[in-house]
Amino acid sequence: MGAPPGYRPSAWVHLLHQLPRADFQLRPVPSVFAPQEQEYQQALLLVAALAGLGLGLSLIFIAVYLIRFCCCRPPEPPGSKIPSPGGGCVTWSCIVALLAGWCWRRWRGWARR
């Protein structure tokens, strides 16, 4: 199975194909494309798990930053009439939560097909 005519893989493709592959016991797996073999499937799952871990950590850091930015402000002095900046934090948090729920529901529906 060759590449289509005129296709030139990007630098990311070359970089990812040069990464060493390992199964769950961290034994090296050959770079031959063999999706039926259990070791190859484990190597793909390990790479996907590492990517998912990176995504999860970045989302946690973003959530902590947003919570700190939105909710941890010094109290306003009594009698101040100046509106606080970022007053729509609750609104934006609700919008993000609704979009995340909608995306999750769409993905679950797509994954069941």
Please name the defining characteristics of this protein:
single chain; mainly alpha; about 110 residues
How would you portray this structure in words?
The chain is built from three helices and no strands. By secondary structure, it is mainly α. The protein is elongated. The chain has helices at 11-18, 38-71, 89-112. Keywords: Cell membrane, Chloride, Chloride channel, Disulfide bond, Glycoprotein, Ion channel, Ion transport, Membrane, Transmembrane, Transmembrane helix, Transport.
Classify the beta-strand content into a percent band: under 5%
Main sheet summary: none
Mean pLDDT, to the nearest integer, reads 78
Work out the number of β strands. Answer: 0
Low-pLDDT residue spans: none
Ends distance: 28 Å
**How many distinct helices?**
3
Helix-strand category: mainly alpha
Radius of gyration: 23 Å
| Strand and helix order | HHH
Brief sketch in words of this structure:
The protein has helices at 11-18, 38-71, 89-112.
Task: Produce the secondary structure layout.
Blueprint: H1 11-18, H2 38-71, H3 89-112
Protein name: Protein tweety homolog
Keywords: Cell membrane, Chloride, Chloride channel, Disulfide bond, Glycoprotein, Ion channel, Ion transport, Membrane, Transmembrane, Transmembrane helix, Transport
Family: Belongs to the tweety family.
